[in-house]
Amino acid sequence: MKKLFFIIPFFSIIFFYSCELIFRADETEKKDLFKEMWHLKNTGQKSYAKTEAISGIDLNLPSDKYTGKNIKILIADDAVDLKHPDLISNALVNGSIDLYNDPLNSVSYIPITQNTETHGTKVAGIIAAAKNKNNNFRGIAYSAKLGSANLFEKANSIFSYTTLQMLMYDFAFNQNFDIINQSYGENPFVYSSIYSSNSQAINELIKNNYRKNSTKGFIIVTSAGNYTCEFKYADKYTEINGKKSSYETTTNINFNNLKNLKDYEKKYLSRIRPHLSLFDWKKSTPYTIVVGALSANGIIAEYSSIGSNLWITGFGGGELSRKTEDNYFNSDSIERPKIITTNIPGRVGFGNLFDNGFLSENKNLHYSSTFTGTSAAAPTISGVIALLLSSNPKLSFWDIKHILAKTASNKKIEPNPKPYCIKVIENLNLFETGSNLWSVWKNNWVTNAAGYHFSNFYGFGVVNTTEALNYALNYDYPYLGKLISNYVYKNYNIQKVINEGSFDYPIEINIDRNIKIQAINIYPILDASKSDGIGIEIESPQHTKSVILYPGNSLISASTDDYNNRLKFPGNNSKLADENIGLLTNAFYEEDSKGLWRVKIINANKKELNQNNQVLFKGIKFEILGFSKN
Questions:
Q1: 549 vs 95, 257, 279, 562, CA distance in Å?
Q2: CB 357 within 8 A of CB 363
Q3: Residue range 166-211, pLDDT digits in tens
Q4: Range list of β-strands (E), 349-480
Q5: How many CB atoms lie within 10 A of CB 63?
């Protein structure tokens, strides 16, 4: 009797649930997908997630007057399925390049195989999926034209990866693409802006081919990266020591029990680090627009890599970053709205009924509702730029950056995020965290002398499409007829020692050239056996401060082969400084360069027996990019 008692209610529940599913399927046969696309218009919907978005956190799109018409966008990614029903009408004839099979000729379509990832198709849908009359699904610039470059196909090539990138940029320039969307980057614990063998050649090609005026050249939009906070170094500890520890085993830690964890758990946690976006040279060149990701709830996404190289924040959805004043020391575990976009038809997704094809509005698996990351945020900005260019085709790369910076908003976003892993590091007492040494982690928005608000978490703020379009339509072209120029200062003979737990008086750099600043790259030459305790702050003649490097950073080798040198600073000589791009900051945008600059090196390392944790500040390369005022 007991068995019968449990079986009958079980089948009753199943029958009721099945009826409910059938009823919903009939109801949603003509589902309006636009109403679920919170990044286009946020009404507080769930977008197939378990929690609601916060109403009003969206792109602030205007009416349909500007649609991206006549704008060409290259998706540098996995091959895009340009035969997708929502993409095919915007696919360019002979507008793609098959880098692995036929890199010297243009093609209309790159074959989609079982090995083709869906990433590129998802990116393309956010930017320029055509308006679908049946379900109102659409991209941001739904009349723009699309091409594909399969940079990440799982195949061999007779060309090096560097050569493939150069072929792609040549193709984009010769085919008159207006925008290249790059939703990719290097792996964490790689420092190509400081130490790379191929960045210079590609960067020079980009500098020659970017959009200097309205006649020719491309604008590169790139994702900031998804490495705040990053586990790779922590996982190496587990691998080497055989301790079955992972951050998932300590998801319930808080301020009260953090110090009661087992020793190997503490050692694991202490190795989770924020990997700064500017360590990747592609995100440290001023000739790209670097994009962070906002959640649907108005705070920077937990994964979105931070750095002084950010320009603007788009919409990526997913998990929230933690707030400075809360007591959370672990990842946000709540399922929050992500981005709805195109999918390679028939590819089963994960995470909900929609992505698995169980709901009638996605029975053919044409869409995904679980795309997230700065990979999703970058195409939201590419879409907005396509609208700007279609409204005003005269705009240059510098004009677009200017418009985005001028019109970005910080009114609806959480002002004080802080990576949860930094809270852990701080409370595990790994570094000297006194206010003078650790205060850079408390810096939030700064207002520079030119009146721009800037944050290492958000760049100039969240994109505001309507404001940007209005500004573009009444634009005064401040850079018209002016040439961009570089001013390079070098001092490779500083030789200043910064002891553990301190910072010395900042070194001073006197710049006698009057330039309206677009960006600054610095290359610090340091000798340090423990570089993860180093912080760097720059102060302009107008007393604006920019944090370039935080103590508690990820300047660590995650390679087991490099174990003895795992914490050494990777840029310790002038040859490397001359050959590499260095670290980028946008905080001084449109300030005047002339005057006395200060560079402060912070050494938050602790003193240890038999370990030299001093930092030798050997020299610096200081490069200012801007427009001459003389």
A1: 41, 30, 10, 23
A2: yes
A3: 999 999 999 999 999 999 999 999 999 999 877 889 999 999 999 9
A4: 367-371, 446-447, 453-454
A5: 7
Q: Which two tokens stand for residue 77?
A: 């990614």
Q: Please give the DSSP secondary-structure letter assigned to residue 220.
A: E
Q: How far is CA 622 from CA 243, 337, 512, 521, 594, in A?
A: 44, 42, 13, 6, 13
pTM of the model: 0.93
Reading the block at residue 211, the tokens are 């959009």
SS3 call for 376: helix
Query: Going by DSSP bridges, is the β-strand pair 219-223/179-182 parallel, antiparallel, or unpaired?
Result: parallel
Lowest mean pLDDT across 42-46, 64-68, 397-401: 64-68
For the ranges 19-28, 67-76, 312-321, 455-464, the lowest mean pLDDT is seen at 19-28
Which is more confident, 4 or 228?
228
What CA–CA distances, in Å, run from 157 to 102, 152, 296? 10, 11, 40
Rounded to an integer, what distance in angstroms lies between the CA atom of residue 429 and that of residue 414?
27
More confident residue, 20 or 106: 106
> 């852990």: which residue's tokens?
424
- List the one residue out of 285, 283, 469 whose CA is nearest residue 378: 283
133 CB burial (10 A radius; 0-12, 13-18, 19+): exposed
| The CA-based dihedral angle spanning residues 34, 37, 39, 45, taken in that order and rounded to the nearest 10 degrees | 120
pLDDT of residue 20: 32
DSSP codes, 137-180: ---TTTT-EEEEEETT-SS--SS-HHHHHHHHHHHHHHTT-SEE
CA distance 97 to 110: 8
Parallel, antiparallel or unpaired: strands 289-294 and 219-223: parallel
- Which segments within 500-586 are labelled E, that is strand? 502-503, 507-511, 515-528, 534-539, 545-549, 583-585
List, in order, residues 6 or more apart from 603 with CB less than 8 Å away: 437, 498, 499, 500, 501, 502, 503, 533, 534, 613, 614, 615
Tell me the residue ranges of DSSP E strands in 317-452: 339-342, 367-371, 446-447
Residue type, 46: K
pLDDT tens for 361-373 read: 999 999 999 999 9
Q: Say which residue the tokens 């309206």 belong to.
A: 516
Q: CA nearest 462: which of 528, 409, 398?
A: 409
